[in-house]
Design goal:
With about 140 residues, this protein is mainly α. It folds into two domains: about 1-45; about 45-135, no CATH class. It has eight helices and no strands. It has helices at about 5-40, 45-55, 65-75, 75-80, 85-95, 100-110, 115-125, 125-135. Helix 6 (about 100-110) packs across helix 8 (about 125-135). The longest helix has about 40 residues, at about 5-40. The termini are far apart. About 25% of the residues are buried.
Length: about 140
Amino acid sequence: MSSRSFIAIVLRDARSAVIGHRRLLWILLSAICVAAIAPAFAQQQTWQKQVESSIADVTGPEQVMCPELYESTQTRCQFEGGRACLMKRAIEAAKRGDCARAVWFTEVTTCTDQAAQREIKDAGETAVCNYLKSK
């Protein structure tokens, strides 16, 4: 084997090792990112789960609970999606800086669940408003 062949083999192996290390580094960094992000999702607070449930709950007028509260807040939401519609208005209010209204709308969407309303109130207007602003 000539010295050129030997050098070519060593360079090829070195390149493979570098590529292999890059892949390994990429895999490790990806795993670290996933490990860092996963707890944030797993640790979502109960009131946040309630908010998410309300955001996703599109209903018809016959399924709206506490229609009298919808009439005093956003009448059209009673007919245009129920809780999901009211949460859309809550998010809009939060983004405008009208946190009191945003939290009130959020509480209305949990009108049949006093424990959920208490959790939202206990979380505080600032926390709920900031959460809604992130939507």
